[in-house]
Amino acid sequence: MVKSRFEHIAFNVPDMEAMADWYCTHMAMLKVRHDPGRKLFLADHTKVVVFELYSNPDKPMIDLAATTSAAMHIAFVVDDIHASIEKLIAAGATVETPPADAAGDTLTMLRDPFGLALQLVERKEALLDRD
Hints:
Shape: globular
CATH architecture of the largest domain: Roll
CATH topology of the largest domain: 2,3-Dihydroxybiphenyl 1,2-Dioxygenase, domain 1
Structural class: alpha/beta
Helix content: 10-25%
CATH class of the largest domain: Alpha Beta
Number of strands: 8
């Protein structure tokens, strides 16, 4: 067995700068490393979960808008799902599925302005004991 810990997940996207700016502005993500024109890494406020955005048109890119949220999505836990939905819609996101109860949690699926599926989760109980 290899002892490991999660570091990041990466997405090759057409406009990494615009996408990163949207996540920093509207999802309170932080740029933790930035190599302009090549790649950048975003983290949430805990600085535990990181995702990389890069733009390499010579390599395959996932058609985010055409990829069903059941196949791939990023999930964010929020304190107030309804207020979060309103703010993200105002910022250009669209609702894919309205909020619904799932074993005491409330879930909704959105699309960011770039087509990436975002799940917002208001948890009854946290998955992990951290902020």
